[in-house]
Design brief:
Length: 220
Amino acid sequence: MKISVLGATGPSGVQTVLEALERGYSVVALVRNPDKLAVKDDKLQVCKVDIFKEDELAPHIKGSDAVVSCLGGSASLFGWTKCTLYTDSVKSIVGAMRQSGVKRLIAMSAWGSAVTEGEPFIIKWILRPLFIGNLLTNLGEMEDYLNKECQDINFTSVRPPGLTNQPSTGQTVRAENGRQFLENSETQISRRDVAKYLLDIVNDTSVYKACVAIGYDKKK
């Protein structure tokens, strides 16, 4: 298995790279600054690219079984300004995939990428209005682009709740297609467990062309 990972120097991307290497996969890490990726492995190739230029991306992802995007912004980076990171990058990624003949895309999104009835208190009253509303809006725009313009791509947008840097919990990750959040679920999840799920679904046709909410069942 060969996986190309974008955002490989970020906290979720690093965990995805480590998990893929642990499984014996070949990994191509597509990054802006290779010096930021401390992971070393014979099966790891680190490539410096501009993620917004599809012509640069295409040669590096050619031959991959899947492209996994762990790109992420932060409230401190974007503040209250409009965020276009996710839409700009996914258009470049999809263009590169079309050039190189790669069909499988897995992209990290988040709970609450669109406003829905009954969403958790923390999203409705804290995260959306006070911290990351602009990021959630752009994630929703990314998903709209995938749904409307990318039916030739076997994409999955994975929506986790709040991310932690804790080790894998060993808990089963529950997933539901088409949901913005999971009821009766914990509101946080380990990045490593998200990485495990991202790689588990590479060949899972049931989540092709889908947006999937994931999480742990709430502890009783």
